Each structure stands twice: as structure tokens, then as C-alpha cells.
Amino acid sequence: MIVKEVESTNMADPDLLEKIDQLFACNAGEYIDLPQLVVVGDQSSGKSSVLEGLTKLNFPRDSGLCTPFATQIIFQRKVNFVGREISASISPAPGLSTDEEQKLRDWNATGLQTLSVKGFAQMMREVHKFLNLCDLQVIGTFGKPTFSNSVLRLEICGPQEDHLSVIDVPGIFRTTVHGVTTKDDIALVRNMVYNYMKNPRSVLLTIVPANVDIATQEIIEIAREIDSTSERTLPIMTKIDLVDQGTQNRVIDMIEDQNTSGKLGWVVVRNLGQRELEDGNVDRDLLEEKWHQTPPWNRVQAEKFGINALRKHLQHVLTSHVRRTFPSVRSETTRRLNAARKAPQSLGSERQTPEQQRMTLLDIVSSFQQITNLALAANYSLDDIFDTDQDVRLATMVSSRNEIFSDHVFTWGHEFAFTDTSQTDNIPVPEVPEKPEGSEESVGPSVDFIEEYKPTKQYKVNFIPSRRI
């Protein structure tokens, strides 16, 4: 990811990250969560400056160009490339119409060797236009949406790039601007940030300016909610040059406090100010080194101060995190790949030609005949259909219907009800079963008939046991 002078500046294990990059290249990130960096923070917290220091990209800082959509920067190492090659595209947000989605997919910029501040700003404005968003510097765009769930995707290839994906999301804000932002925009941005942060395989870079009260930084609370163990949250403090001298020691004490720093600990960076950026001749690394030698900032450990320290710290964090999450990525990828391969098989063989169609019909008939034979033989263990659909267990159903029919014949299949003549007492009146619902005639003789025609002699009746059908 970083233009390296020595091999040790790799952001993480190149072999593992190359495998992750291959998954990104085939859009697997749309289906499974992949390890990536997510840079989050409030508006004007210094996110762009931190990203510029890490990626060596010239992010625009125009006041009219706050981040209105997520930007995904994918770095790929191509050993056969000479220098950088940059391409840009738009990943449409879910829920767009087919025409809108196709319009966004048609936009792209390829073959770029560099991306200057001016060129990056021009690209952002062009994406603004395609997303039909409000632009404070363009008349006639007021009243349009200010933010979008679509993603600007930058792919940067070169022989010295690290395999890595970085997501820059819009900054959280709490106050609306009349005619520009609404309460719905506040909720949209918060949900967007939350959705990117909740990816359990992402590393969160939470940007917090040192010149504000940390208790007011909502991003810290969200990070604690999502990553309660703080295993993948790396807090970064910016704008230390704007801290009052009276509060500098308090800020340093907070940096050293493990209750606020989490497992990974704070990293302090000194971003360039507006005048220093306009000068263009200020070396950031030298400036940060000078600041670190100045009290009280010299109290901060060297491995926690400056963009270079952040890069090295991030190397260890990423390596550990990717190694920990890669087995689950591999297993989930394998599972989804196997499911995708089995899906076409469920459609059956090809049947484009008449001959293929005839063969398909013969296969269906043969399969039906085989299932029927198994059903008649009650051999249910040889086909899964008998487990999923109990109604096709034909032998069981026939036996059950025979039992029901036998019971019905035994109960209702006679005109007169007889009693055993072995007894010499008066013949008791037999109980007549209730008439089945829907029957038009009574079953068996009536009570009056039996009383009137009760025989004077006893007749021996030989009962033949009913035979179940």
C-alpha cells in the first residue's frame, strides 16, 4: 500500500493480503466480510490527512468537498508494472433502478499514472454529478441529496503497493445546515458508518482531534459498542498543534491511560496545517520529528508518535488480525463456492436440442418409476424424497387406508345388530352407533323394531370373526 524504500515497510503479511486482494478482485466482498481498514471519525477530525500520510494520495481538502460517500481504495501489487496505475469506478448503492445503476456502472476513469489534489478534486466533482448530489460550489444543485450510499472505488496497482483495502466513510455530524443537510442525512451517515464498522473482520481507525473533549466524540462510543474488546480498534489522535498549552499534559495523560486507549493504544500524529499545505515545501516527517522533540510531547513513546510510527504499528495490527480472521474467510468462501457450484446442478442437464429434451423426459420418467417402486416396496431409505415428503410413502398410506376401511366396515357394514345367543336372559337392546355425518339413512334396526320382533326362542349364531382388509 505504501511506496516502500525497504521491504520492512509492508503494511502486513503480503502472502495473506494477496489472497484477500484476489477475493476483492472477484467482488467476493459483496457476499462475505473481508479484512480491510475502515477510517472513521467526525467531520473535520483529520481523516483525510491521516489517509494521505498512509496512502501517499493527495486527498482534496476543499470545504465544499466533504466526504459525501464512501471511498474504497484498493491497493494491488503488480510486479510487472512500472510505476502506479490508477483506475476509478462507482459501485451503485442498493435499491437503485436498473437505468440508474447502469449509468453509474458506465462511469470510470482508467490509465491514470498520478492523482494530484486538483485531479482528485475534479474526479470527486464528476462523481458528485453522476450521483446527482448537492455541491455547494455548483449553482442549481441545492435541494438535492447531500450523501449517497454508492461507493467511489479506486484501484491502485504497482510493483511497490501492498495488497490492502481502505474504506474512507463520511464523517459523523450532529448539526444540520439549512438547505444542505437534514436530520435524515445525520441518520444516513450514522447508519453508513455503523454498517462498515460492524464488519467483524475490519480494523477500525478511529480519528479523534486532540483539541476537543473526547467525551463528545460519538465515534469512540460506537467503537466501544461494536468492538467491546477493542481488539480491532486503533484510536488515532490528530490536531495536537491546536491544543492549548494548559491542556497538553491532560491530553498526554489520557493517551497513556489504558482505560481510554484500549488494547492497541493511542497513536498521535501531527497533520499539516492549511498554511503548511499551501506552502508545499514542508516535510511532514521532519515536522513530526521536531514536534516529538518538544516538551511535553516528548513524553509520548516514539513508537506511538508520527505517521511512520502509525504505519509500523498498523503493520503488526494488520498481520495479527488477518492471520486470526483468514481461516474463517477461507471456510466461508469455500462454503459459498460449493453452494454456488451445486446450484446449477439442481437445474439438471442441458436441454437445448430436441434430443436433449427427449433424454431429459426419459430421465424424469425413469426417476419417477424408480421412486414409485421404492414407495410400493416401502424401501424409504434409498431416496431422500421420502424424508422430505411423507405423502409419497405409498405403501404406508395404502396400509393406513386399509386399516381405516376395515374399521369402517366392521362398525357400519351391517343392516341388523346381533347379540351372542349363548346367554338365556332377555336379549338386551344393542346400542346403535351414531349415524355418520352426512348419512341419509339410519344404520341398523330401530329400538322399536327390536322390541316388537324380539324372538321367543333363542337361536345360536355362529360368529365368524371379521377379517381385516
Radius of gyration: 39 Å
> DSSP strand (E) fraction?
5-15%
Helix content: 40-55%
**CATH hierarchy, class of the largest domain:** Alpha Beta
Number of strands: 9
Could you name the ranges where pLDDT drops below 50 across 5 or more consecutive residues?
1-9, 440-447, 449-469
Question: What is the name of the CATH architecture of the largest domain?
Answer: 3-Layer(aba) Sandwich
- The structure class reads alpha/beta
The CATH homologous superfamily of the largest domain is named P-loop containing nucleotide triphosphate hydrolases
User: Biggest sheet: strands, sense, closure?
Assistant: 9 strands, mixed
- What is the H/E string? HEHEEHEHEEHEHEHHEHHHHHHH
With strands numbered from the N-terminus, the spatial order across the biggest sheet is 4-3-5-2-6-1-7-8-9
Q: How would you state the average pLDDT, rounded?
A: 80
Q: How many distinct domains? A: 2
Q: Specify the overall morphology.
A: elongated
Characterise the protein shown here.
This protein is of the alpha/beta class. The protein contains 15 helices and nine strands. Strands 4-3-5-2-6-1-7-8-9 form a nine-stranded mixed β-sheet, with helices on both faces. It is elongated, with a radius of gyration of 39 Å. The model is unreliable at 1-9, 440-447 and 449-469 (pLDDT under 50).
Short recap of the structure:
It is built from 15 helices and nine strands. The chain is an alpha/beta fold and 469 residues long.
Features:
alpha/beta, 9 strands, nine-stranded mixed sheet, 40% helix, elongated, disordered C terminus, 469 residues, disordered N terminus, Rossmann fold, Dynamin
